[in-house]
Amino acid sequence: MGDSTPGTLVDRHGGPVAERSTAVPGQRRPPGVGDRGPIIEAYERRCAALANRRGAVAVSSSTAGFELCCRALGLAPDEEVLVPEVGWRSIAAAVRTVGANPGVVPVRRDLVVEWPDVRARLGPRTRAVVVAHVRGRAAGDVGRIAEGLAERGVALIEDCSQAWGARGPEGPVGSCGVAAFFSTRTPGSAATGEGGVVVADDPALLDAVRHAAGYRASTAPRLDWLLNQRISEASAARALPRVLRLGVVVAELRVTQAAAAAVLATVPDARVTADGAGASNGATVGVWLPGVERSRVVAARLGEAGFTVWQPVDHDPDGTGAWPVGPPARGPVDVRRYLDIAVPRLDGAGRARFLGRLREVCAGLAA
Fold this sequence. Notes:
By secondary structure, the chain is α/β, with parallel strands linked by helices. It has two domains: 38-244, Type I PLP-dependent aspartate aminotransferase-like (Major domain) (Aspartate Aminotransferase, domain 2), CATH 3.40.640; 246-366, Aspartate Aminotransferase, domain 1, CATH 3.90.1150.10. 34% of the residues lie in helices and 15% in strands. It has helices at 38-50, 62-72, 89-97, 115-121, 142-152, 203-213, 233-244, 246-264, 292-304, 348-366, and strands at 55-59, 80-84, 101-105, 126-132, 155-159, 167-168, 171-172, 179-183, 196-200, 271-272, 284-288, 309-310, 338-342. The strands form three sheets. A seven-stranded mixed beta sheet has the order 1-9-8-5-4-2-3, with helices on both faces. Strands 10-11-13-12 form a four-stranded antiparallel beta sheet. It has a two-stranded antiparallel sheet with strand order 6-7. Strand 4, helix 5 (142-152) and strand 5 form a beta-alpha-beta unit. Helix 2 (62-72) packs parallel to helix 3 (89-97). It is globular, with a radius of gyration of 21 Å.
């Protein structure tokens, strides 16, 4: 899927993915063409290829990308967008920004929504559904969700902010919905500090997103006031090497992830998440404990030992407990029993030290 072999990439419909631009670095661009330089175009082509999509639009953040998708879809006031119980709160805030209402779908054991729960919450005003691929893992039910929503005329938008390089049964994350958005915010496997990208197949939707973001090279009809959500050539220059090396980074992370998962599995009553067959990008190792208090104890021990730990407690902005939508949602699974540790990118010696320290902590928890 390399960018150096034009004409060989196809999307899930069998069509060409992200045609190669003829722009040459340093070449003078005709007046009025727009403000997307050759580096931005190269970055967009690479992002489209990674998601097996026909095109991409580079934007200032993943939240901006999602808001632009909502605007491009023409969401009307009081229409509903369903979002997952676990997901960054700015996504629900973006729904409110465009005048729509966020509804919450509970998550299951992999912290992702499943089709039966989505179907049960669809209503006459539901216009779109967000499926988040969280903690570096692909949402396993996204194909079934995409099919069910398409039959009902509801748009699926994939939140791939935490899942660069992950793959599900249908292919790379971001390849199933009407559109998908990614983040290059630090931290992450494609981190540049801040930034995002929208990928899709529909040229009209991509052009509408580009127009709303403030890029002048757009043939879209006038949508609304234009925003300043584009990125600069300098930002694209920082991001492009990251996405070009994404496969190497993910492969290295998965080596450490597999070893760390084996160590964490020695903690009594711990159930380590299954991240095989490319479903994860290697960024985290997730663990479920039998109770909330036990999960808090394990998280505290790991944090005290210097590991980067995440746990969806009530006040965490990654969960509805911190959102202004009423009391915390309690779905069929109590997500507070989950925790994960971040997997750093390390060389051989660094990996040995990381795993050695993890064994010490896990041995103490088993005692």
